[in-house]
Amino acid sequence: MIKIKKNSSTSGTEVQVLAQHIYMSVFKARRVIDQIRGRSYEETLMILELMPYRASYTILKLVYSAAANAKHNMGLNEADSFISKAEVNGGVIVKKLRPRARGRSYPIKRTTCHITIVLKDKSKY
User: Fold this and answer.
1) Alpha-carbon distance 70 to 97, whole Å?
2) What are the residues whose beta carbons fall under 8 Å from the beta carbon of 61, sequence distance 6 or more?
3) pLDDT (tens digit, 9 = 90+) per residue, 26-65?
4) What SUPFAM superfamilies does the database record attribute to this sequence (predicted)?
5) Which bin fits 21, alpha (ψ -120 to 50), beta or left (φ > 0)?
6) All structural domains of the chain
7) What angle do CA 107, 112, 115 make, to 5 degrees?
8) Of 95, 102, 85, 92, nearest to 44 (Cα)?
9) 117 in helix, strand or coil?
10) Model pTM?
């Protein structure tokens, strides 16, 4: 789900991207998000392409999506934008049962997370 906000106050124009129910631990996604918060768009792309974590690919797709929406819907330049807000929140936990020997079962818990990235235009400042 993609949300686009346009603030006419001093905060300028921002584009918000929200990805829900991603099969990933919150802690593993936060490890990557903490590295890109507050950085420019181009610097973020370089960091995410070189990181060896699985979460970086999903976050890279979100940053690309936010930049494409900023360019297409708002007419903003990608080079002039930066990551103003990036957060990861916990989602639902998918619970399953794995059958074991002698009629027993062990629970499997698959955690999900919601990732929010906000791009702002720095030329407005």
Assistant:
1) 43
2) none
3) 999 999 999 999 999 999 999 999 999 999 999 999 999 9
4) Ribosomal protein L22
5) left
6) 2-124 (3.90.470.10)
7) 170
8) 85
9) strand
10) 0.83
